[in-house]
Amino acid sequence: MTLRWPTLLLALALCACGPSDPKTLTDQGAQALGAGRAEEACEAFEDALDHMDPQHPLFLRASLGRLQALARLEPTRALDEFLAFHTAQGAKVQDVDFKLLGDEFIKRGSFRAATELIKAAKLAYPASPVVEQLGRAAHAAAKQAGDGDSVSGLAGLGYGD
Question: What pLDDT is attached to residue 160?
């Protein structure tokens, strides 16, 4: 059997974007995350990160995607790793990234993790309306859930009635 040029080029292109391609793996992670498959997403993002260094253009996206997936699986670990990531990456981690993770904590009722995240976000972005919105949302959700400790902790950060 002889391969024709278009077929050969397609085969080569597919090989180039195979299982170790960071973009393909990052996209797969994002698709799995969007479909609610957190474990699969975490694995895809980890695989992508194994094939790139911190200067890679997709490093931040894959790292934050992995942390978002991890927040659905292990909130305390996700919090610790996010705070370490923020320390290492500095200004590359924006207030909206804090909100992304904080929203995951709130959805899952992980109010202690949300409170700790908001505390760090306030230090990093003291005048951010995004952080303010996150703090108010966390307070309202913790209050509705009857989590008095988190309500008090958030009130101590300036969010409350």
Answer: 83
Please provide the DSSP assignment of 60-117 as one string: HHHHHHHHHHHHHH-HHHHHHHHHHHHHHHGGGS-HHHHHHHHHHHHHTT-HHHHHHH
pLDDT in the model for residue 10: 36
Domain annotation covers residue 10: no
> What pTM value is reported for the model?
0.85
- The fraction of the chain above a pLDDT of 90, given in percent, is 86
Report how many domains make up the chain.
Answer: 2
Residue 35, CA atoms < 13 Å, CB-side half-sphere: 11
Do the beta carbons of residue 93 and residue 85 sit within 8 Å? yes
pLDDT at position 20, please? 79
Which structural domain, as residue segments, surrounds residue 124?
79-161
Region 106-130 average pLDDT? 97
- Which pair of structure tokens corresponds to residue 157? 């950060």
Q: Identify whether the C-beta of residue 93 lies closer than 8 Å to the C-beta of residue 86.
A: yes
Query: Could you tell me which of 114, 62, 68 has the C-alpha nearest to residue 92?
Result: 62
117 with 161, same domain: the answer is yes
